[in-house]
Design brief:
The complex is a heterodimer of chains A (252) and B (332). By secondary structure, chain A is of the alpha+beta class. Chain A contains five helices and 13 strands. The chains are: A alpha+beta (252), B alpha+beta (332).
């Protein structure tokens, strides 16, 4: 649990905490910083902290926003106004210190396993050849590599249901496109540098498109709007174009 | 119990206080750009602060009422009319069944808020009726109103809603309330006044010239600014050295610096996370003022510390709560 110490520069207005540092982000948010890198262990501690916050039901919170290496609390400043003259952010920081007197431990072992069927290449993954060329592999080896790995949902952001995944094999790291697309089709599985993710809806984007899933990643009308939640484990399974069409038809 | 949209205006959306509790799924808060004016509009018609209102942008809609209603407009100053009668802002007004409200154009400011006694009714999406145009989430599939849309009002109960009862019993004559609010503390679209800005986490990573420019130079709100963010033209800013940043949570008012060097102030529909350096944070007390600035308006920042900004924010919320209570007492 010593991953967070060295890479963080100290600035006057934050405080050193066991496991995280607290940075006010405006008048109604506090950001808890666990590190500065994309790192599975740091990310696991972010989610452990979010779980604890949900469990203890800290009052006066509007929202909890977990990211790769940080977590923001959106809070009600009037609720956290201190009777003793302390400011709301100081008051809430004190409460957090009490809740997390024992630093949150990240457990990378559990989490739901979600399988995502992907039709690789062709019109569903127009950049598969470019990714293969960059990796110096043939297309089948790229698909084998991409489906062999265990991924984990690090965070959702950018757009409702957009999942950023940890676990991409370094041989598949591919720079973003110099010329971002205005429309990336929903369900696209893409690589942007060292990151990989799934586009939940039609969005602009500069990532390299490997393939597409027929599953609906986000539907605000569903009981669980998002197929993927932070901390979930993910595996990709290659499917053919016919299976893609059949599943897409069934999902409509 | 409905209001027909005859002309939609430039960008008219249903908004409540915003969508909370789903940020972990990447769902943003949305809600009104100016968070103060809609609360006052609701108070004037006897609604609670979370009732749905219309956010009206620069060019207002034309609406036909099929039932008597009490409305109030706050925020930007629009030349609204019912027939040939002027509808003053910051004051409750009665509209009769069959009449048309033409919200006109903004004379000062950008965004006005139209509240109706009882509130507009819409199916909630993820517990909110806030329209997130960029994410296409909310009533009307997350889009702005179109001609021929029909808005429904919350049905009049057997005991009329507080606003309607109040409208009948307290000084609301045939057309308008006899008293109105002073908009001055709550609405300010003056582009010459600086906007207060807290240093962001990566302010120190700006080069010296850029640090000085952020708090000294005059920017201009770019034409492509919208509910997601305001892009600022003018002084290009630069980092002293490249920064590797992983995506982090963002807030309404966060000032990001993309590689091109033109800062972006994130507004109501901002994404929940982002990976550009965060060089500043607009003070919450000045966000309603920024929301009333137009594309092309000049913009200067002046520095404020977090502690002072939060103290002033609490004070504003306290004063606003007192005023809302006073209005409720007056309508009771």
């Amino acid at each position: 649990m010593s991953v967070h110490a060295s890479s963080i520069s100290s600035t006057p207005d934050f405080e050193i905490e066991p496991g995280f540092r607290i940075e006010p982000l405006g008048e109604t948010m506090l950001l808890l910083r666990f590190g500065e890198r994309i790192d599975p262990e740091i990310n696991a501690r972010v989610h452990a902290t979010a779980d604890t916050l949900r469990r203890v039901e800290l009052p006066g919170l509007v929202d909890v926003i977990p990211a790769y290496a940080s977590l923001a609390l959106h809070y009600d400043a009037a609720f956290w106004a201190g009777r003793d003259g302390s400011l709301p952010w100081q008051h809430l920081a004190g409460a957090l210190r009490a809740v997390f007197a024992t630093p949150p431990r990240g457990d990378t072992g559990d989490g739901r396993m979600i399988e995502i069927p992907v039709c690789y290449g062709g019109r569903h993954g127009v950049d598969l050849d470019a990714v293969a060329a960059h990796a110096g592999l043939d297309v089948d080896a790229v698909i084998a590599c991409h489906t062999a790995a265990d991924y984990r949902v690090a965070m959702l952001g950018f757009a409702p249901g957009f999942a950023y995944l940890l676990g991409l094999d370094p041989t598949l790291h591919t720079p973003r496109r110099a010329d971002p697309r205005l429309r990336v089709p929903p369900g696209s599985i893409a690589i942007g540098g060292a990151q990989t993710g799934v586009y939940p809806s039609e969005l602009p984007g500069g990532w390299q498109l490997l393939g597409r899933t027929p599953l609906r990643l986000f539907d605000a009308g569903r009981e669980s709007p998002c197929l993927l939640a932070p901390g979930d484990r993910v595996r990709f399974r290659a499917i053919g174009a016919n299976e893609f069409e059949a599943m897409a038809e069934a999902a409509r | 119990m409905s209001v027909a949209v005859l002309k939609p205006g430039l960008l008219t959306t249903l908004q409540d206080r915003g969508r909370s509790g789903y940020a972990a799924l990447g769902v943003g808060h949305a809600g009104p750009m100016d968070d103060v004016s809609p609360r006052l509009a609701n108070a004037l018609v006897g609604n609670t602060g979370d009732a749905a209102v219309l956010e009206i942008t620069l060019l207002g809609p034309r609406l036909r009422f099929d039932v008597d209603a009490v409305i109030a407009l706050t925020g930007a100053d629009f030349d609204a009319r019912v027939g040939d009668e002027t509808v003053a802002s910051w004051r409750a007004t009665r509209v009769h069944a069959g009449e048309e409200l033409d919200c006109g154009r903004a004379r000062r400011g950008v965004r006005a808020y139209l509240a109706i006694a009882g509130g507009f009714r819409a199916a909630t999406v993820l517990d909110s009726v806030a329209t997130d145009v960029n994410a296409r989430l909310g009533p009307f599939d997350g889009r702005a109103l179109c001609a021929a849309d029909v808005l429904t009002m919350v049905a009049k109960r057997r005991n009329a809603s507080p606003g309607q009862a109040a409208a009948r019993s307290h000084g609301l004559n045939e057309r308008r309330q006899t008293w109105s609010l002073d908009p001055r503390p709550w609405f300010d679209a003056d582009p010459a006044k600086p906007i207060r800005l807290i240093r962001g986490r990566h302010f120190d990573a700006l080069d010296r010239t850029s640090q000085a420019a952020l708090f000294g130079a005059q920017f201009r709100i770019a034409a492509d600014s919208n509910r997601v963010g305001y892009r600022l033209d003018g002084a290009g800013l630069a980092l002293a050295a490249p920064l590797e940043i992983v995506s982090e949570p963002l807030a309404f008012g966060t000032v990001q610096l993309p590689p091109g060097g033109q800062p972006i102030v994130l507004m109501s529909e901002h994404p929940v996370t982002g990976g550009y350096p965060r060089i500043g944070q607009v003070a919450a007390i000045d966000l309603p003022r920024l929301a009333q600035r137009r594309p092309g308006d000049p913009l200067r920042f002046i520095e404020i510390g977090l502690d002072e900004a939060q103290t002033r924010y609490l004070h504003r919320e306290h004063e606003l709560a007192r005023l809302l209570d006073a209005i409720a007492v007056r309508l009771a």
